[in-house]
Amino acid sequence: MDITDVIVIGAGPAGLNAALYASRKELSVKIISNDIGGQMLLTSEIENYLGFESISGFDLADKMEAHVRKYPVEFITAAVMNLEKNEDGNFVLHLDDGNTVVGKVCIITAGKHSRTLDIPGEAKFTGRGVSYCATCDAPFYRNKTVAIVGGGDSAVQAAVELGHLCPKVYLVVRSRIKAAEIMVKRMEELPNVEALIGYVPEEVKGDKKVNALVVKRKSDGEERELAVDGVFVEAGGIPNNSYLPEDVKTNSMGEIITNKDGETNIPGLYAAGDVTDCKNKQIIIAVGEGAAAALAAHDYLLRSGK
């Protein structure tokens, strides 16, 4: 049986850097993911990654991938269906293509997927006015009215991007805006962006396509029906960890609990990036966590004599 030193799940910034660092330690590495770049691919412009004053998420992902491919890292296009630790202390990963891979250590960097609103009309109009990627779909809404649901960095960035394309943009925020101050300032400078603070989405309405979003004010229950052509859901993410063994410790949001070296409560199992309980979900932090996890994995292999 072919046993790889390090198996990385996920090919976003954390996973790519983990693979790079592990390979540079002369370890055999396999990286498993259905895409390369992760949520970076959904970001139109990145201005806070050291060394690049401004770069698109796609271009940054492309540069990272090219760097990693200079090393003998094996890329596997697949999804992990199940992860278990066998009697030899190795990690066995069952993939959706029917194949199985085995590694001495495993680093989970699978990130998150978009959180849905779970309101009437959302599923019905997904792809017909409801979108989970402003960067992908914003150009289709030029000169139209849209609503964005969320109050974090991605929501405010979407408001700025759409604010330059649309005559009217509503930002529906449940509690308060939790985005970088510079992005909030840019949004507030756009007269066509209206932030509805303390409102929650209730229903997406439409005929063949979306034509309205019903929102409710939390303080008194007052409802408003916003006439919109599109609804962008930017309400955070859910960790991609459905394959985890039950004994892996996670927090109430399903994020994997790790220490500063990316160690989980399972020896030989590491995690980095947005899939973990790290407070700040930033590309540069994910990159650093990926490096830390790979270095810790290398130390573990040396100590265990594997």
UniProtKB/TrEMBL annotation:
Residues 5-290 form the FAD/NAD(P)-binding domain. Transmembrane segments: none annotated. Keywords: Disulfide bond, FAD, Flavoprotein, Oxidoreductase, Redox-active center. It comes from the Bacteria. GO terms for molecular function: oxidoreductase activity, acting on a sulfur group of donors, NAD(P) as acceptor. This is FAD/NAD(P)-binding domain-containing protein. It comes from Dialister hominis.
